[in-house]
Amino acid sequence: MATTSLNPSASPSEKASSIIQLLTDHGSSDYIGEPITQLAHSLQCAQLASTHTHDPDTILAALLHDIGQFLPTPDVYALTDEIRHMSANDADGASDIGSVGRVGHETIGAQYLAHMGFSSKVSALVESHVAAKRYLCAVDPGYWGTLSEASKRSLEFQGGPMDGEELAEWTGGEWVEEMCRLRKWDDRAKVVGLEVEALEAYSGMMEEHLEHQQVGKVE
User: Of 187, 104, 106, nearest to 140 (Cα)?
Assistant: First the structure.
């Protein structure tokens, strides 16, 4: 896969450094429709997670939940093609991969993290953070009112509140509680000028997580 940041064979230390650099290099752009940068939003989300849980998977998912927005264009194209190909194969061998539709940044980010050796929980939480908004709008009558105007507008394009089979599946799904907590931290992580831990503070946690995953695969 000819990309600029996808290197699954790199060491855990190299992967952590690469991701830190990726976030640093591409995090200064505006967080769409909000008054802070992409990186500031990610760091605020991670800090909220850190104050509510000691689970490294959840904290890293909070930090990296928008990683799909940071990736270089070649990576995005490569991952999108791969996701569409996998989806087409899952759909009884359908040949028209274009019918799979738009691939969101949450799905691209989750696929990227899976490639880089993060746990299935980290990838699942990252992939869920858009759908979790739709779920919470369906089950929590007061949740919609907590959303920013930009988030309310994007809900329409993300499919609106869940219902039917999708809602039932989510209600009984694995890690649904963590997914909802991450979504609520995501919603709150939009404070202008808030002081947070530096990005480098998460490097050791990221490296240790990747080392653990690597050892687990060898065993």
Answer: 187
